[in-house]
Each structure stands twice: as structure tokens, then as C-alpha cells.
Amino acid sequence: MQENLTYIKNKKGETKSAFIVSDNPNLSKLQQLSKELGHIIYSIPKDTKVEFNDNGLLIKAIGKEKDIWQFLKGWAMPYECFVNGFPFPVKMEEMWNSNIKVEEVDIEELKWNLTLPWWNTDENKYYNLKPEDVMLDINKYPNHKERIENAETKYPLLLVQTKQNRWLVYDGVHRFVKQILEGKEKVLCQKFSLNEIEEYIPEDYINLFKEWLSLEYK
User: Alpha-carbon distance 161 to 197, whole Å?
Assistant: First the structure.
């Protein structure tokens, strides 16, 4: 598969990312390849025009942009989730035990989180299910129904700031959905700004995180 990759280099000639043109990418193979190579790989559908910045990050796509996938050191994610979310792993246990204050947030402010495919229909698929679709017919998705019903709402949601200055529910989407279904108007949350979240990012991702911070989408 490597021979099908097109490599993106910076002005110093260093490889920063790569992409493959495909309408039917092998997600598991690209996931593994990104782990081996250590940089981002993009899967770009045919007839989609793309533009990269000097750091090799995709900043513009015209065409089937919703069908673009990115693979970051073994982590697969649709491009629309990358743009609208927070595309890095975190030290979750440290976030759970942080001293960030717990506060109430209006549910309406967070409902945008329901409109993107953060969930999966099964373990062999990635990011193909929107929480709002589960809420429309919860019995159709027994795995998510069980997780929603068993969610412990006494724990605050962990919110991370996005590039659009919105609050992403990074941990606790099932708890969030449960409270919406219960008719709650506010939820308990801990907010991690882009400055605060750096402390919780694994060392291997820090440089890429700093490049991402300067990213401007077109």
C-alpha cells in the first residue's frame, strides 16, 4: 500500500503527512500503516481537490470532503470529526482526577455534539453513527441503549475546547444523552481550554498538537 501513498513534505524536505486516493479505503490497513510511519495519512475520495499547509495538514477540501478519512498513529477518524472535534488522545485518568472546577452548562450549548458521527454501530466500524440518530430510535441500537441507561450521571462531562471555540463532549456522551432524555436543562461539566488540555496530551502527540493549534481551515 505504501507505493500508492503521495507524501507531503515541508520546505525543509521533511515528510509531514501522506495521502492515498480511494473511494473504498481499507481502514484497518491504513490505521496500522499510520502507526508504523508515525505521521498522518489521509484517504481522499476520487474527484476531491485538497490543499495542505506547510506542516502537511489538510486545510481545504472541495468535493466529497465528508468521505475523507485521517489516520493518526493508529487512530482513524473522519475528516469532519477532525475539523469539528479534538483529534488527539488524552491522559483520561488524569483528567478525571484534575482540579478543574465543576460547573453547570446549558444543554442547548452542547447539543451540536449530537449531530456528528462520534459513535459506531459495531466494533468493526468507525464513526458511522450520530447520537441524535440513536435518540430517534433508541431500541434500534441495543448496545448504546444499555450504555445510556447504565450511565452514571453523577460524574461531570469532560469538555474540550475546539478550534471553533465550542465545547466538545470528549468524555460522557452517553451520560449527556441520558440527561437530555430525562428532561434536564443543565449538566455538570469540567471545561478544559486549549491551553489547559496540553497538560493531558501524551508526549508523542505534543508537537502535532502545537501544529494543529496554528491550523486555519479554508
Answer: 9
CA distance 143 to 132: 15
Task: List all residues 6 or more positions away from 135 whose beta carbon is below 8 Å from its beta carbon.
Answer: 114, 177, 180, 181
DSSP character at residue 156: P
The tens digit of pLDDT for each residue in 190-202 reads: 999 999 999 999 9
Query: What nine digits make up the cell of 141?
Result: 441500537
What's the CA gap between 127 and 146, in Å, rounded?
A: 19
* Residues 39-48 pLDDT 10s: 899 999 999 9
How many Cα atoms occupy the beta-carbon half-sphere of 218 within 13 Å?
A: 11
Helix residue ranges, H only, 15-122: 27-37, 79-84, 92-96, 107-110
Q: What is the pTM of this model?
A: 0.85
Give me 211's grid cell: 501544529
Burial class (CB in 10 A: 0-12, 13-18, 19+), 12: exposed
Query: How crowded is residue 106: how many other Cβ atoms within 10 Å of its Cβ?
Result: 10
Distance separating alpha carbons of residues 25 and 10, to the nearest angstrom: 26
